[in-house]
Amino acid sequence: MQASRARLFKEYKEVQREKVVDPDIQLVCDDSNIFKWTALIKGPSETPFEGGVFQLAFAVPEQYPLQPPQVRFLTKIFHPNVHFKTGEICLDILKNAWSPAWTLQSVCRAIIALMAHPEPDSPLNCDSGNLLRSGDLRGYYSMARMYTKLAAMPKKG
Amino acid sequence: MVSDSITNASIHAAPNNNNNARDVGKKKRARSAKLKQCKLDVRREQWLFQGAVKNKDCKAEQNGVVEERKDRNNHRPFGNLGMRPGGGENDGSIHHHHHHDSDLDSNSPNSLTSSVLGSNYSETNFTGSSSSSSSSGGCCSGNITEDDEGGGDDGCLDDWEAVADALAANEKPKNPCLESPPEHDPIAQSGSPQETTIGSDGPSFGVENSKPQCARTIPKASGNGLAWRPDDAFRPQSLPNLAKQVSLPNSNRKHYGCGGVPWAYSGVVSVPSSCPICYEDLDFTDTSFLPCLCGFRLCLFCHKRILEEDSRCPGCRKPYEHEPVEAEASVHGGSLTFRLPRSCSLITRS
User: Which parts of the sequence belong to the UBC core domain (chain A) (predicted)?
Assistant: First the structure.
């Protein structure tokens, strides 16, 4: 069995065990393919994403964990480091700063941290990045909040 | 200062021990065997006593002994670390880099890392610190184990006999060290000042050194410091592993007596019990394998895979500069090759 598969199995067990530990992250493995995962993460509090639940899609390469998993947002999100259309995430640890010591769970935590601390200087969403870079925090907040309500929160009524 | 000198001493001691072990081990095998057992017993008692009360004292003594040897050999430890290629200057700079890197890492991914990987990190750090403080006895075992690992790298993993031989060779050197500590205390003191001076050249440098050494020594160190207390709790787990993994009765016992217990303890507490990369359990060789100065541990298989890819330490993301160390270890089948790199490092350094 490949190392990646073995490791993913271990991570799966770990996730099952730690489910209770981190209520903000819910990692689910695809029923038929252990290289496909989805995660539900809660938007961090005191951010425009608070109260939203965002879905992430993981595509784990065969070389995992030597190669990072490919992660993207399935839920629309207005964030400078997330491509608004594709959901692609610009995060160093998902690229050159990846370390095999990271896990899918830790990647989720990293993404939550990224949501709370956007990096407007390396934007995938230029509109969002420009709002932050121009100091229009209010504009950024309201836009992000709107999309959170539209896409990441259960609709009432 | 005291702590620094101690750590340095321990560090230096480690390399010396290795050398001694190799050189002396072959010669002294017969004689050392007797001495070992006696000393081991004595040592255990000491541990029980001192470990509980003062770990440092014991360490200092042992360190002193080690230091003596070091003084002769001088800066071998660096050679062990794999700094040889760079030379003295490089050593310093490299260490500094490490320092910065580690800081940076902690800052950037760290916020994440600390939370996410926090467990790994903290563990390793702790081991480092503990080992630094208490490395004296540990050095021997740590080094020895490294050697073993090196053998594993060579491809001898499957060859248990080779490992056993290596272990035996290592153990023999240990005994002298263990025995000598009390006697050599004065010497140790004399040695320590030198060490400190070296450290003064680059403060961070010294610290860094202590770290890696510590990591290597961790097993022993932890053992020294904590002696048997934690051990008792964890024994059930570690012991069976030992039995399974080390099929060498003689060497195994010795290790167990000297560093085996601490090792077991460290394996449970300070050293992760499973490889953080593949999540497989770390066996004896893996546990004593410290490829990077940052103290990040992983199994030999994963280490090899990483070397084949980007060759960066998963813990600090620094490239594995210590390949030389491994190479050393791997080559170490021939003692000659082993010495060569070290002597080179010495030269460059001085």
Answer: 3-153
